[in-house]
Sequence to fold (323 residues):
Amino acid sequence: MRVTGGSWGSIAAARIGRLKIHRMQESQPARSAGAEELAKVLARYGEDPGLAWRQLRDLRDSDPPGFGKAALVHLGGGATGAAETHLSHVLGVGHEYLDVLTDPDQLADGEAVVAASMMARGDPEFYKKLLKMRGTRDHRRIYRILQLIDRDDQAMLLVPWLRELADDKNSRLASKAAMILSRLTKNPLAVARFLHSGDARVRANAVEGLWGGNVEKTRALLHLAARDSNHRVVANALVELCRQGDSIGRKKLEELAGHEDARFRAAIAWAIGEIASPDLLPTLQLLEGDSTLSVRLRAGRTAKRLQGALSEANAQRRSLKTG
Fold:
């Protein structure tokens, strides 16, 4: 599209306006949050913890939202000393920090997850406060909350909400909730319900959530999932069965390496990487010579990954023998 000469002025003005807003957004958090003041207080924490505690409360009370952002950014950096423990206690007195913690535009995913793990220890009301956000319909914020509690065994309080989300029409939310619910409860009955879902992502994630559980309680369900019509569901079931030494699962995996559907063969190549058993290398080598490029590429990535893992394991064994 050609822009006429008279349009350049308005375009330039709009760009300048956006640049000013961007600069304001960049500079405002540092000013309002007192990030520099927070860093100074934390740096002097060891000299006088009592004074630092009072100073942290003063910073919080002077600007709760700004303090929350600065504190979460610091906690998201991974430091776990006494200063950070006290910081999480001070921050946990209020609830404003959750607006920042659950906003994908405020903190990066990894940063938020690390900060949340500190807040879960520092704020005894952490999960109750998350549960109070149950009414939000902001899908991005809900998914961030799911990221925060993923692999968190203490999040049982959120199980009722997870059950609701597992039935959500949004496939991304439903499948994530199904995985977390399955992982938290390891309940075969709950997962069996998910296997009736018409959404393959929900079925696959629910099965993956069973990994590492009591296979004697989930074996029958895993065998049922291994007969699913979707390659991801089948592969996830076979990973856990083979990890637990299930001979039927192992036979099924080797048979599917010759499946007519390339998606199944690629899924088996991926599964072999998750199982990480040297006994499956001959099957993987067959897949490396597959007639379909996508299968060969997946098998090649798995082979490279396993070679590194096996080399490291062999080095550790040699070190133990010589030690």
Observations:
- Residues 257-323 form a domain with the Leucine-rich Repeat Variant fold (CATH 1.25.10).
- Confidence is low (pLDDT under 50) at residues 1-33.
- DSSP finds 19 helices and no strands in the chain.
- Residues 12 and 306 are 54 Å apart (CA to CA).
